[in-house]
Amino acid sequence: MEQNWSDIEKKFILLNGDVSELNLGLSAEDEQNIIKNVSIVFHVAASVRFDDPLSDAIKMNTRGTREIVQLCLKIKSLKTFLHVSTTYSNCYKSMVEEKVYPPLADWREMIETVEKLDPGIINILTKKYIGSMPNTYTFSKSLAENVVWEHRNQLPVIILRPSIVISSWKDPFPGWLDTINGPTAMLVGGGKGVLRTCLANKDVVADYMPVDVAIRAIITAVWHHCVNRVQDQNKIVYNCSSRDKSVSMQELMRLGLKTAEQFPFSEVLWTPTAHFTTNKTCFAVNAWFKHLIPALIVDLVLKIRNKKPRLVKIQQRIFQAITALSYFTLNHWTFKNENFQNLDAVLLPEDKIDFSIDLSDINIKEYFVNATLGLRQYLLHEDDSKLAETRKQANRLYWLDKILKALGLVLLLWSCQIFFLSSYLNA
Q1: Distances 359 to 208, 223, 356 between C-alpha atoms, Å
Q2: How far is CA 122 from the centre of its chain?
Q3: What DSSP string describes 146-187?
Q4: Has residue 385 got a pLDDT over 90?
Q5: What Pfam families does the record point to (predicted)?
Q6: If 0-12 CB within 10 Å is exposed, 13-18 middle and 19+ buried, where does residue 360 land?
Q7: What separation in angstroms does the CA of 390 have from each of 24, 158, 224, 298, 416?
Q8: What is the pLDDT of residues 134-174, one digit of tens each?
Q9: Most exposed of 40, 45, 300, 324 (fewest Cβ within 10 Å)?
Q10: Are 203 and 248 in contact (CB under 8 A)?
């Protein structure tokens, strides 16, 4: 970017603000600057934490959207306002169409409630407020959609719902990403050997969206609505879903672990593996034996060596994260995405080189291999010059795992033999 556009910094003006604050935390001068000089608004800012207190989620995701809308109403030459939501904003439905559904609560009342009531009281009442929603994130994003939808006759709005955004397909590089979320955390945890059991349906097909395709969709949708002046309100919601190009949980983990075998992570706790179960009791037992007990042993060794124990805390966070994600790893959704797919058709042939959102040519196996390699490079910052040594360590762990399992089996058979022999002699 610096090579192609040396004056890129001159095109950006940074403003101080906070989406969770009233009036977005903008100064009067900055607000007037936006009102006079902005014509297109992208509302992407949001908290994506599943465990946010309801007060925080509503203030950031719902009230923040209201504040953006109120600002847009003042902008003199607004051409388009695009609100980024999520395909899971209506996750209480197994099939989600490209439309805004009736609200689960009145967004005005919810904003007023979190502004007036003590956060502690709201925490106690959270389950009652969110109803059939699994967490405060999806609930607050659902209400935010209704904020935008109610202003569709006053503003030129677009609602774009990406599914689970993960590593890039092509741009800026294959496999690029700058943050860890659910699927990438599973790949890292599995590759590092700290995630060995997971509460998930191995056959569930999760809907993933490469980050660069999601960004292309955002740009293309805004361009399309500005140039073609789209008036049809049935065409303003886009489910940015990969739908026919998604993979099952088992296949995702298989591809990730296979790549991790060829390009192993450093500082691995144990040889990579993963076990899926849909039974919560079975998961709890597996987590105890495969996660917590090894963590206790490692932390004990660290303490004896006068080093800070940390693995138990890591495993506690992993357990909480898996539990929070289980609603999404145990269930399947179908996202209708005709509006999204039709976006590609409005592009000129020469524009499709840079802005096409067509996923028909994506090689799923190659994509997830690149995604795993991207994790090594861009998030974990693995040193490839040490890859040979890392492979040797991984090979040693592999055989140690096999030997210990064999010894465990021998011990079990020997114990059974002793037990039955003792029972026979006593009889």
Answers
A1: 11, 20, 9
A2: 26
A3: HHHHTTTTTS-EEEEEE-EEES-SSSSSTT--SS--HHHHHH
A4: no
A5: NAD_binding_4, Sterile
A6: exposed
A7: 48, 48, 49, 20, 39
A8: 999 999 999 999 999 999 999 999 999 999 999 999 998 99
A9: 300
A10: yes
